[in-house]
Amino acid sequence: MPRREALRRAAYLLGSAISAPTIDGVLAGCQAPRKPRDGVLPGTGAASRTLSADQREMVLAMGEIILPETDTPGARAAAVDEFIDAMLTDFYPTERRDHFLAGLDRVDARARRAFGNGVTKLSPEQQLELVTTLNRETFQPGNGARAQPQEGEQSFFRTFKELVLVGYYTSEVGATEELRVNPMGPWRADIPYAEVGRAWS
pTM of this prediction? Predict the structure, then answer.
């Protein structure tokens, strides 16, 4: 599936517009490769460049609640942590990157207040409760794209969910195992007119 189509579908799933840095990052995959800020290519299993190991595990744990493994792979199998790390490093301006990282810290602190442990140490049931609560608070009626700008955990969770969905549906796993694949045919520079029978507009 073309990245543009995956991006359109992810926007539909979110029920709102996708942020400019996310669009920039995804559409960069439709162009010739550009050199990342530190020379490391994203999606290669390389070490984190922005997220710590704990933050990556937190991203995977919460992402797996949003897109769990069922008869198709989940967010963990799609390595959404690598995608989010690449987006934060290569495409997000410093202010938005810092806002996202502060959001991770706030959600982790909320988990400690509510359950006595950080997100990665919670039971699956506690993780589900936390993410479900964040989702309900963020996407409750009146909090749509045209509502007043959100702050704190709600603003963070909207961005987080956006990145998880876009990262999943533009990954090989998401595009080939979750979605139906309709790849374009091979490129042929010269096709005999008799094969097509007429010109195409």
Answer: 0.69
